[in-house]
Design brief:
Elements lengths: L1 H12 L4 H26 L5 H29 L4 H10 L5 H12 L5 H22 L2 H10 L4 H16 L2 E5 L3 H12 L3 E6 L2 H9 L5 E5 L5 H6 L7 E4 L6 H11 L4 E6 L2 H10 L4 E4 H16 L6 H11 L1
Parallel strand pairs: 1-2, 1-4, 2-3, 4-5, 5-6
Helix pairs in contact: 3-4, 3-6, 5-6, 14-15
């Protein structure tokens, strides 16, 4: 059952549904993570530490040193950037949940003793605890290796790629209806990179089939934090909520928490909705369908009468409506 679930996750992860499935599965993942650590604590037998400490030292050496170094070496041989190689190597420096499944099967078939299983539990507790701390040392490890002359070429290339990525102008567009599609087209013509978040899987497939390098599409709900993170909101300059059906209030709160400098532009159908959003955040750039149409028609009327000093008056009235 566990292996079947693992394979199913791999299949879904390679599909167009991956981003939405990931965002909706994360709350369940958090629950199971808690249950996992509770079960590990209940299984651990402190009394066996005295008899199994040699095995524990061997396991710690394998998990903390042999696995990370081996994984880093293999990825390096595949001509991947050193940052990726070290990150993956350090990430593997722990015993995960799947190893417990294999170990429990080994115990049930008599291949592994209970003392060995208990040693694995202890090593997993130690490695999982320290792995997150070690993972934060990655930049320092890379700098140290660079000073020693290791991976110098690959590190420089990776650094340049990252710097180029940071320089890219990036805008997130939520919804790819008539408004979102038009905005995206205009932004692309101005050499801007656009990431579309859309709830219609067929629309997402259509966007991807265009093979436009500057246009990326993500299938999922923009009101979910994980979806916004996948859209690289931390480096985005602006986010455009182009559809009035999107929960603008929730999206705005999450977007601001992830990137306090981001500019948020909102499209609403009614002026009443625009007023409510304005009360929530005065820095939002809001345009309502009612107000925009009224503004455009009023300008046309003034043009018919040959009036020229109407821009300020109309803009003042428009702001009062919002």
């Amino acid at each position: 059952m566990a292996l079947g679930a693992f394979l199913a996750g791999m299949v879904v992860g390679q599909s167009d549904f991956s981003s939405r499935a990931t965002s909706e599965a994360l709350p369940i993942s958090d629950v199971f993570s808690v249950l996992f650590f509770v079960s590990v604590g209940m299984l651990f037998d402190v009394s066996t530490l005295k008899s199994s400490w040699p095995l524990i030292i061997i396991l710690l050496s394998v998990v903390l040193f042999v696995k990370p170094i081996g994984a880093t070496f293999i990825i390096k041989q595949l001509k991947q950037p050193v940052k990726k190689a070290i990150s993956i190597g350090i990430a593997l420096g722990q015993i995960g949940e799947f190893s417990f499944i294999l170990a429990s099967l080994a115990v049930s078939y008599g291949i592994m003793s209970h003392d060995a299983y208990n040693a694995i539990i202890f090593v997993s507790i130690v490695t999982i605890t320290f792995n997150t701390t070690i993972y934060r040392w990655i930049p320092s490890i890379i700098k140290f290796l660079q000073k020693k002359g290791y991976f110098k070429t690959y590190y420089t290339i990776t650094d340049e790629i990252e710097n180029e990525t940071k320089d890219l102008r990036h805008v997130i567009v939520i919804g790819y209806g008539p408004v979102g599609k038009t905005i995206s087209k205009i932004l692309l013509q101005k050499q801007l990179n656009v990431t579309v978040i859309e709830m219609n899987i067929d629309t997402v497939k259509k966007i991807k089939s265009q093979n436009i390098k500057e246009l990326r599409a993500i299938y999922g709900d923009a009101s979910q934090r994980e979806i916004l993170i996948m859209s690289a909101i931390e480096t985005a300059e602006a986010i455009v909520i182009s559809t009035p059906f999107a929960p603008a209030k929730e999206i705005t709160e999450i977007a601001k928490s992830l990137n306090s400098r981001i500019k948020i532009l909102v499209h609403t159908t009614y002026s009443k909705s625009a007023k409510e959003l304005r009360k929530q955040d005065s820095n939002l750039i809001i345009r309502s369908g009612e107000g925009s149409v009224a503004l455009a028609l009023a300008k046309e009327v003034f043009t018919i009468y040959g009036s020229t000093n109407f821009e300020e008056d109309i803009d003042k009235i428009y702001k009062e409506l919002l």
